[in-house]
Amino acid sequence: MSEASQITREELDIAMQSFEQVGGMAKYAEILERAMNMMRDHFDMTERSLTIVQKLHAMQLQGIDQWVGLCKFLLPLFATIAAAGLTITSPTFNSQIATIIGLIGFVVFFAGLFELSRKRQKLLAKQEKDIEKLHKAFQDGQEIVNILKAKAQDERGEMTDDKVREQLEKALKIIKDKQR
Fold first, then answer.
1. Range from 75-79, 86-90, 110-114, 119-123 carrying the lowest mean pLDDT
2. What DSSP string describes 104-171?
3. Within 10 Å of residue 90's Cβ, how many Cβ atoms?
4. 93: β partners
5. Which residues are paired to 90 by β-bridges?
6. Model-level pTM?
């Protein structure tokens, strides 16, 4: 073998480093793919959770809103009965009973409306906390994905695509020179 075609220890080390970096790039790609799959799964789970929570919240509010609607409908009715009992005096109409029924109905449904409104506010506050928990879970998932991406970057090291290509070209040149 001539001296020009002999592979020096330094050239062999460069070639070995190139192959190690290519292995690192495969590991980098694997970690990055895992991170992307995890992020996709996390987005899907968060989206499904949000949809379920929104439906649950809507159903909870729907029941309360129906009772609030009933109270709002009956309040003027009982107020009218009470007002009629106070103003109408007729031998065929018992104004005292109408007034008592109207006042009791008005007070009961007004108290019910107040209690339902308070319950609705508590429910809205709880729902807001549920949404905050989902947001926190989403942020935690994002943080895990960022950690995986950082690990992938550590695995890749300082080798950019251009540097890897340059190292591979050197290694291929050395291999070609050896075969001549």
1. 86-90
2. HHHHHHHHHHHHHHHHHHHHHHHHHHHHHHHHHHHHHHHHHHHHHHHHHHHHHTT--HHHHHHHHHHH
3. 7
4. 90
5. 93
6. 0.54
